[in-house]
Amino acid sequence: MEKIKPADYWSGPVEPMSEYSLWTADFLKENSVRSKKIGEFQDMFHEKADLMEHQLKDGRRVSDFVQCEKDFSHGIRIVLLGLKDEKGQPIPESLWPEEFIRRVEAETIKILAA
User: Is there a domain that residue 87 lies in?
Assistant: First the structure.
C-alpha cells in the first residue's frame, strides 16, 4: 500500500489540537532560556525528530517526552509530545487529554476505512 502523509488527508480536529499544543509552545517561548537534545523519536512522517531538555529562566529544567504514539495502516502515525519536570513527572497542562487522543484515533480510522 502507498504511504499517505497526514497532510494529504487530514480533516480532523485541527482547532482542538491547536488549543492543547499552544500551552506548551507558549510556556517554552516565555520561560525557556536554552534547550539541548536529549534523545530522538520517530515523528508522524517516520523521520527522526529530537526530544529536548529545556532550561527555564528560574533554573528548573523540563523535558519533552512521547505521551502517545499510534501507528495505523498506510504509514499513518500519530505522535503527541508532553513535558516532564525534573523529577520525571508529567506536567499536567502539557498533556493531551485522553478524550482528544481517542477522537483523533477514531477520526483516523474512519478516514482510512473510507
Answer: yes
**N residues, the chain:** 114
Q: Tell me 90's DSSP state.
A: B
Whether 53 maps to a domain, the answer reads yes
**Domain housing 82:** 6-108
The C-alpha cell at 70 is 499510534
CA distances from 37 to 34, 64, 65, 93, 110 (A): 11, 10, 12, 22, 36
Measured between alpha carbons, how far is 75 from 73 in angstroms, rounded to an integer?
A: 5
pLDDT in tens, the chain (114 residues): 344 343 433 444 444 455 557 788 889 999 999 999 999 999 888 889 999 999 999 999 999 999 999 888 878 888 999 999 999 999 999 999 898 888 888 888 888 887
The reply to whether 38 falls in a domain is yes
Angle between helices 14-31 and 98-113 (to 10 degrees): 130
Does 1 reside within a domain?
Answer: no
